[in-house]
């Protein structure tokens, strides 16, 4: 039998133990390198290698994490990845599970973005309950962007195509550069202050796509607070679908592109006209059905229509019939009540008590009660006398009166056997009248003498 210390273990168990050791020994960390061998699977997961001049390692980034990357992942791109070292057990290969990804060299910007995002989220600026609904039919839309931006042309083109009746008001500001964040904040503040005059129903904050540095103006804290404080709903249409900024999280709605922001803000005129035509057809059908129903009801009511004289005559006949029925009901009711009254009177006469007979019965009962009480008292007196006589016979004093006495020792116990006594013992002798103290001189053992009463001795 093989020694337990040298017993073979399955490969899967070995790889699992190695993976557990690696994952427990290395926490999440940042690794920099160049992307190579990039494969984007149909499931949305990304598989690639990170390499530098001396080594390379396989990496996997799952779909949920890929969707948070704000740029297009390509071969040859230098990146910084937040990874968890591990093992792919099916092949026994060492790999890195990528949790987050950022461009190399912009780590500081990304860190600031993350810190600001977490801070504003804790303050509730991203909460859904603070989001406002967009107006379904705006009359004027304000656009905060650069007049030279391609995003503005996309927005205006989309609005003219979908809803040419809507006025467009532009609040100019640069969307990239050192003072772009301040200009964007000032433009939003101006739109809020001129809300009563400009009467914009919704604001679009937009620009085209770009790198993290290009979009840094939209990650400004002051701009985020201006969006949150705006009295008008704000749509953020910054960058492309994969670009995320702080403005996207604070805005009431986030659009993946500026064109999509314009589509969110304005209803489609063609769709509205089609819906209006559909509702018009439904309205005509409903009105036609209503008129047909009213006409039918009018015909029915016309047949029921009666001349006032005929109606009055019919009501007079009905009134006379009701009067006759009322008189008949009154007469019948009175007869029934008279019959009930006679019957109740007869029952009352039969139920009236006879006072004289009651008095005689009371006298008889009183006489019987007196006689019974007397007999009971006599019986009880005789019973008491008998019991008193029996008690007198049992009275110890009566026994003493016949010349007997009671002997008791020093403890008060009655002495009934001379054998329990000792010479010189003191005794108490109780007579009918008084007591005597005595001392035993001697004891004799013999049968009890026959006692005679004093009257027998005299005889």
UniProtKB/TrEMBL annotation:
Residues 10-101 form the OB-fold nucleic acid binding domain. Its main location: cytoplasm. Pfam families: Exonuc_VII_L, tRNA_anti_2. Residues 125-436 form the Exonuclease VII large subunit C-terminal domain. The keyword Nuclease applies. HAMAP family: Exonuc_7_L. This is Exodeoxyribonuclease 7 large subunit. It comes from the Bacteria. Belongs to the XseA family. It is found in: Cytoplasm. Heterooligomer composed of large and small subunits. It catalyses: Exonucleolytic cleavage in either 5'- to 3'- or 3'- to 5'-direction to yield nucleoside 5'-phosphates. Its EC number is 3.1.11.6. The keyword Nuclease applies. Bidirectionally degrades single-stranded DNA into large acid-insoluble oligonucleotides, which are then degraded further into small acid-soluble oligonucleotides. Keywords: Cytoplasm, Exonuclease, Hydrolase, Nuclease.
């Amino acid at each position: 039998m093989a020694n337990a210390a040298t017993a073979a273990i399955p490969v899967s168990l070995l790889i699992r133990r190695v993976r557990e050791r690696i994952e427990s020994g290395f926490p999440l960390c940042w690794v920099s390198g160049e992307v190579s061998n990039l494969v984007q699977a149909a499931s949305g997961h990304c598989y690639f290698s990170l390499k530098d001049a001396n080594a390379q390692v396989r990496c996997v980034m799952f779909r949920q994490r890929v969707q948070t990357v704000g740029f297009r992942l390509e071969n040859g791109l230098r990146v910084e990845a937040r990874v968890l070292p591990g093992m792919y057990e099916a092949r026994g290969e060492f790999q890195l599970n990528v949790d987050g990804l950022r461009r190399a060299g912009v780590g500081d910007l990304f860190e600031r973005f993350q810190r600001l995002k977490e801070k504003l989220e804790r303050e509730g600026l991203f909460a859904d309950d603070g989001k406002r609904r967009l107006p379904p039919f705006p009359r004027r839309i304000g656009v905060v962007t650069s007049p030279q931006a391609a995003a503005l042309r996309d927005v205006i083109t989309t609005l003219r195509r979908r809803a040419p009746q809507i006025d467009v008001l532009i609040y100019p500001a640069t969307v990239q550069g050192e003072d772009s964040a301040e200009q964007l904040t000032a433009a939003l503040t101006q739109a809020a202050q001129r809300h009563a005059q400009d009467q914009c129903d919704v604001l679009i904050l937009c620009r085209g796509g770009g790198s993290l540095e290009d979009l840094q103006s939209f990650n400004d804290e002051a701009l985020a607070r201006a969006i949150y404080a705006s009295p008008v709903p704000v749509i953020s249409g910054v960058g492309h679908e994969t670009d995320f900024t702080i403005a996207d999280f604070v805005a009431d709605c986030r659009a993946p592109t500026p064109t999509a922001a314009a589509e969110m803000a304005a209803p489609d005129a063609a769709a509205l006209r089609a819906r209006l035509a559909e509702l018009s057809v439904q309205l005509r059908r409903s009105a036609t059905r209503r008129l047909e129903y009213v006409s039918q009801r009018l015909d029915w009511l016309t047949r029921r229509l009666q001349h006032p004289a005929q109606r009055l005559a019919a009501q007079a006949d009905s009134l006379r019939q009701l009067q006759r029925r009322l008189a008949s009901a009154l007469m019948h009711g009175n007869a029934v009540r008279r019959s009930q009254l006679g019957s109740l009177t007869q029952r009352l006469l039969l139920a009236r008590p006879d006072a004289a007979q009651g008095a005689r019965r009371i006298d008889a009962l009183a006489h019987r009660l007196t006689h019974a009480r007397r007999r009971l008292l006599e019986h009880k007196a005789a019973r008491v006398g008998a019991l008193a006589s029996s008690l007198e016979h049992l009275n110890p004093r009566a026994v003493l009166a016949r010349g007997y006495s009671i002997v008791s020792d020093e403890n008060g116990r009655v002495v009934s056997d001379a054998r329990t006594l000792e010479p010189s013992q003191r005794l108490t002798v109780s007579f009918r009248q008084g007591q005597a103290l005595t001392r035993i001189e001697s004891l004799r053992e013999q049968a009890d003498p026959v006692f005679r009463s004093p009257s027998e001795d005299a005889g």
